[in-house]
Amino acid sequence: MSTKSTESVDRTMKPILTIAAQLQFGVVQGIAYLPGGERVVTCSRNGAIRVWNTTTGEEEGAPMDHGDRVDCVAVTKDGKRIMSGGPDKLVKVWDVETHEVLEEWSGHESSIESMTISPDDELVASGDMNGMVIIREARGGKVKHFMRNLDGNWGASEVKSLCFSPNGEKVALAHNTGTLRIFEVATGDLVLGPMYCSQTMSEELYEYWPWHWAFTSLPGLWSLDGRRFFSASDGNTIRTWDTETGDPVGEPWRGHEESLCRSPSPLTVYA
């Protein structure tokens, strides 16, 4: 006789903490965990950057004021610095403990939409609304590479997502046009792409009608071994790409879109 229980198990995901205080300060545009997971950084449309305790839900220290609005935020792996970007076209570097501005870097020609920090904390990549990507040294802000307007259509090439490979040697760029490209960090050269991630996108269609996909968002992430890249797109699809050939791997996964999270296990991706 089987000893297994026949009772159903409720697997519904429930929040363990709600930080409702942020609602009165504007829509949350970005979020990033500090190392250890005990604190989280948020940025909002009113320009405020805040640090929260993930156990108590209490805000730590005074908010940092980026400006009228801040659209993206990233934190260094050593947990000492926060970097933010927004419509003022500036990357600002903040001290995690004092909440003071350490550095400000210019160079972008339009609103900064996305930002990422390399695994070794040595480089920062930021992308803007006009398709420009700047890779800099994380200390001092010295520019290593400019990559300009990669889709060739102003206003239809926002860099919505940036992601360094696990070894830091490549960076993936996803545009709101539904295109994905991979660049070599050392040289700034394009090594793969464009890959057309949108369910309805093709090279021929994009050439003649790029504006139709101007609001396609493409968050993405690398596999732990760097051999695959996962992109989320319209049509509730997740696609897997071979990062050596640029070819799609298997059929698209269907169900969710707009955000992805990789498990510590190399075999699991959450959407």
User: Major sheet: size, sense and barrel closure?
Assistant: 4 strands, antiparallel
For the secondary structure, the number of strands is: 22
Name given to the CATH architecture: 7 Propeller
Number of domains: 1
Strand content: 35-45%
The helix/strand class is: mainly beta
Q: Low-confidence parts lasting 5 or more residues at pLDDT below 50?
A: 199-217, 257-271
> What name does the CATH topology carry?
Methylamine Dehydrogenase, Chain H
What's the helix-strand series?
A: EEEEEEEEEEEEEEEEHEEEEEE
The CATH homologous superfamily is called: YVTN repeat-like/Quinoprotein amine dehydrogenase
Rg over C-alpha atoms, rounded to the nearest angstrom: 19 Å
Q: What strand line-up does the widest sheet have?
A: 1-2-3-4
**Morphology call:** globular
Top-tier CATH class: Mainly Beta
Would you tell me the overall average pLDDT?
78
**Distance between termini?**
39 Å
How many helices? The count is 1
DSSP helix fraction: under 10%
